[in-house]
Amino acid sequence: MDYSKLAQAPLFRRLNDDEIGRILDSVPHRSRKFRSGSLIAQSGEAVNSLMVVAGGTVKGEMVDYAGRVIKIEDIPAPGALASAFMFGNRNRFPVNVIAVSDVELLLIDRSDFLDLLMRNHIILENFLDMISNRSQFLSEKIKFLNFKTIKGKLAHFILQKAGKAGSSVSLGMTQNDLADFFGVARPSVARALGEMEDEGLIMAKGKNIRILDRESLACQITD
Prior knowledge:
Layout: H1 3-6, H2 17-25, E1 30-34, E2 39-41, E3 49-55, E4 57-63, E5 69-76, E6 80-81, E7 96-99, E8 103-109, H3 110-119, H4 121-145, H5 150-162, E9 168-170, H6 175-182, H7 186-198, E10 202-205, E11 208-211, H8 214-222
Antiparallel strand pairs: 1-8, 2-7, 3-6, 3-8, 4-5, 4-7, 9-11, 10-11
Helix pairs in contact: 3-4, 5-8, 6-7
């Protein structure tokens, strides 16, 4: 396994390759590989191990009651899977996890990882940061999914990307990606962007958005 990639993982922050190697030598661990398109974990399945993406990219998806697939996020190496769900009364995957490309995972069983946390304060601190950040992300995602209209979702997404004072933003996603992220059809995203341009709220060019009327754009969130 390539320790240089793991050195970029939030779990191993502030540790060099040699230190990561010594830590992994001190704890039982294993590697698993998945082909692109494979189901890695299913929603509701128990989270029994720490799982770090050592290579490739995975995505989290959920299916709503109408059968629509909503992409929650992409997790490229060296991210971790369901780190906030390793412990607690309901330690189960909240979404389906699917390999976007060929993937290699580093796995450490929960009991062995708990022992490592008790022995290494840097790993413990990094893990606490990870689960706190994950909880904050999921909280924002729930808030986002509660917006009723596609224009409301787009307005929130654009304003969040732009920050408090920004007037230009790169979405970093194609319209297909946005449709997956919002759980809607691609034409719906294109139509909403077109309407927002016609209303003078934004100017869109590819993935780049210029905000023309921030106040009216913010009103789309509550409509």
